[in-house]
Amino acid sequence: MKLKSLVTFLYLIVSLPLFLFFRAEIVIWISFFINFLLITGIAYYHLNYEKSYSPFLTSYIVFTFLFFLVAPIIQISSAEITELVFPTRYPYRVSDVLYANFLILLFNVFFFIGYLFFKKKYKPNKKDIKVNENTFSTPLIILILFVCCALILWFNFGYIVDEINKSVYIAATESVSSILIRKKVLFLIPLGAIIITYRYLKAKKIITTNTVIAIFIFAFLLFLLLFLKNPLTEKRNALGPIYITLIYLFYPKLINSNAKFFLFLFVAMILVFPLMSALTHVDASFKEMVANPEVITSWFFKHGGITETFSTLNYDAFANIMATVEYVSSFGYSLGYQLLSALLFFIPRSIWASKSLSTGEVVGNYLMDEHNFSFNNLSNPLVSEGYINFGIFGIFVMSILLAYFIVKFIVWLNSTDALKEVMAFYFAVHLMFLLRGDFANGFSYFVGTFVGVLVIPKLIHKTIKMLPKKA
Fold first, then answer.
1. Angle ∠(136,141,145) on CA atoms, nearest 5
2. Which of the residues 249, 273, 380, 436 could staple to 359 if both were Cys, CB 3.0 to 4.6 A apart?
């Protein structure tokens, strides 16, 4: 069986029972099925007609399928819906679900049209690709980055040890700007150094003193990155893009085609992660599960297994679209204010006193006030980020901008600049987080990584070039 056929079969085998056992009003069923047909059509184009490698479109399809089809359908069909509420305590109303599906449909249509348009207009050619990889991968730059990373470890060792000893879910006492600079900029510099060092080693055909030193530096950098970015100090949405990017860097053949990456991401997000999440809730120790595997199966049958995971707050994106629409009906559109505060995330509140909260917090506070919810740190997908700013026009703007920047990153992915190429792939995986939202966090986290991985090494490179050369 060809890989494309296997991916298609897996996609359909998951979709069939989803709609076959979907318990809802017929108009609700139809509204979800229409969105399913559209995203399936996009997936068919991606797997069978798209010639260029586009992990970005894979992430978009898998996100939409998971958060706007699988999760809400299971939530609506679950026993909890008898209480007429979603996981965020937002009430189940037919009109709200239909309107949310309508907004998602518009976003998908606008995005796909924009994606096809920009791909045709900005198709990469040889003039777009500049061979500058070798100028970056020099022993001097590698050595400078090594010293920078060693200093980062020296000044933050105690901080990391403290982070390891506490839960990642404990509310941080450190300021948001400090966390962003430390965790999303400084702690990602080793990734940029790894990319440069690895490409330098790959380009060398013979063993020299420089290559031996580079091998030891590479081993240190890899250890340092895994030390700074580990499951005890970071959440899964932060680790996923880093670790998957390392797979792409070291063993690209595993995920370097649309079908391969689709299979990888689809299995990981639809099956593996929900399964792992479900296993963490089994009321038994690891030793008990190994000694008596029936404990796992009995728990799965009792609690619904993987499907129960999709009814948790991790999959609140669809419900938050409805909550955002209701919020707008009460308070009106922000007219770009929410978007502006996200784009200017780096300005502290001490300077900008009226700076808005992130959209996830705004909608979370609304749910707490109006629907007796108890949590305000929520996601907010790009669909509702566009809506809260400018309504349907905002959805059009957000979808078109997303399509534009994805196509620009496709050009980067085909560049021989190692940093641009790998940074583009990182964005493809990070896109899962960005699409889920909220936009303020998704955007700021990517910008931080962008500065640490790409901007700082390039600044070092430019600084070295400006230094006076010996006569």
1. 120
2. 380
Alpha helix (H) residue ranges in 122-208 = 133-136, 139-164, 176-179, 189-203
Q: How many residues does the chain have?
A: 471
**pTM of the predicted structure, to 2 decimals:** 0.90
- Please report which confidence band the pLDDT of residue 130 belongs to, taking 50, 70 and 90 as the band edges: very low
User: Angle at the Cα of 69 (from 67 to 72), degrees rounded to 5?
Assistant: 75
Predicted pLDDT at 174:
66
> Per-residue pLDDT tens for 32-49?
999 999 999 999 999 999
Q: What is the per-residue pLDDT for 83?
A: 67
- Integer Cα distance of 71 and 113 in angstroms: 26
Based on the number of CB atoms within 10 Å of its own CB, is 422 exposed (0-12), middle (13-18) or buried (19 or more)? buried
Q: Dihedral through CA 55, CA 58, CA 62, CA 64, nearest 10?
A: 110
**How distant, in Å, are the alpha carbons of 237, 263, 280 from that of 269?**
11, 10, 16
Q: Which pair of tokens denotes residue 242?
A: 């880093």
Please calculate the CA angle 55-56-59 and round it to the nearest 5 degrees. 85
Picking from 73, 131, 97, 425, the residue whose alpha carbon sits closest to that of residue 270 is 73
Task: Tell me phi and psi for residue 166, to 5 degrees.
Answer: -125, 160
